[in-house]
Amino acid sequence: MIAVPNIVDAQALVDWFGYWPSFHDAEILELVLRTGKPSILKLHAWEMLKELTEEGFYAQGKNCIVTFSLIDVFETSLEDFYSHQNVLLSLSIERNTYGWTIDLIAANGLGGRLVAKEVWVEFEPGKPDVLEAEREHSPRSGPAAPL
Fold first, then answer.
1. CA-CA-CA-CA torsion for 134, 137, 147, 91, nearest 10 degrees?
2. Of 39, 57, 36, 35, which is closest to residue 48 (Cα–Cα)?
3. Three-state secondary structure of 41-104
4. How far apart are CA 114 and CA 105, in angstroms?
5. 97, 107, 109, 110: which is closest to 33 by C-alpha?
6. Who's near 142: CB < 8 A, 6+ residues apart?
7. What does the CA dihedral 122, 43, 10, 25 come to, rounded to 10 degrees?
8. What is the pTM of this model?
9. How many CB atoms are located within 10 Å of the residue 87 CB?
10. Which residues contact 81 (CB under 8 A, 6 or more apart)?
11. CA distance 37 to 141
12. N vs C: which end of the chain shows fewer Cβ within 10 Å?
C-alpha cells in the first residue's frame, strides 16, 4: 500500500479510488510550468482491474483526470518528452525540507522531478474526451495500454 501524501485534497482522491494510486500507466496529458501562478501537472489515471479485455489488456475502471497544482516550483529535472504520448511507471510525492518533491518515473516519454513549495490535487471522474478527439488527427493514436 502506497502512503498517502499529506497534500491538500489527497483524501478525496483516496476516497474515490479506495487507496492512493501508484499512477502506473497513467498518461501525462499536460505539464505547464508558470511563474506567478500555479504550475499544472495533469494525468489520465485509472484503476487497473484483474479482468482482461478481448485484446488481452487489463480492463480499466474508475477513469479520471488528476490535476496536481504546484505552487512556486523552484527545481525541475525533466527529460524525454514525446509529443505523441508520455506514460508513467509510477509517480511519488514526498515531503522535503523546502516543500514537496514529485518524481515522475517514465515508462514512455516524459520523466523527471519537480520540486515545489506547495502541492494540491484535484480530480474529475471520466476519460479525457478532448485527448481522444485530438488523437483522431494524429498518425499515432490510441490510449496507453496496461502491460
1. -30
2. 57
3. EEEEEEEEEEEECCCCCEEEEEEEEEEEEEEEEEEEEEECCCCCCCEEEEEEEEEECCEEEEEE
4. 12
5. 110
6. 135
7. 150
8. 0.84
9. 24
10. 109, 110
11. 33
12. N
List of long-range contacts for 29-36, beta carbons under 8 Å, 24+ apart: 29/65, 29/128, 29/131, 31/78, 31/110, 33/73, 33/76
Nine cell digits for residue 19: 487507496
Query: In this predicted model, what pLDDT tens digit does every residue of 16-73 receive, in sequence order?
Result: 999 999 999 999 999 999 999 999 999 999 998 889 989 988 888 999 999 999 999 9
Residue 119 burial class via C-beta count within 10 angstroms: exposed 0-12, middle 13-18, buried 19 and up: buried
Residue 107 phi, psi (nearest 5): -95, -40
- Write out the three cell numbers for 39: 504550475
Task: Locate 115 and state its grid cell.
Answer: 520540486
* pLDDT reported for residue 48: 87
Instruction: Extract the C-alpha cell encoding 113.
Output: 522531478
For residue 106, what is its C-alpha cell? 517514465
